[in-house]
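Hi U.,

Before I forget, here's the chain from the pilot set. I'm dumping it here mostly so it's searchable later in email.
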Amino acid sequence: MATAKFDPSRVWLFSECSRSELRTIERNVEPLHVAAGTVVCDEGEVGQTFYFVVSGLATVHQNGRKTAEIGPGGYFGELALLDRLPRSATVKAASDLELLALDQRTFNKLLKSSPAIVRKLLVATASRLREADAKALKSAIH
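Structure:
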């Protein structure tokens, strides 16, 4: 299985950050090994951690049905950094996984230490919301 380098700029949430801010984010992720068959996060549980897949394969299930696979370079749980709402899916290790994890507590410390990052996360979130609004409008018209 391929190995991915963590590039936070590829995560929509961090896409507006400067190189220096991205390096700060990189320094704050923690490596995590997950054995095949292990549930990484459960649909309906309150999320508190973002995960980036370095190597291995994870499956995504919603309402008990497999909806996606996440491999190296993929990520999940980024919304858990912004809110404390229930997870929208279950993610399970289909093979051994090497992950990088960023928990909400560490993320909040980053935000307190850098108001510039906060502003850029708001811009990225607004951009994502505008894209979702445009998609919804387009599907309503057609």
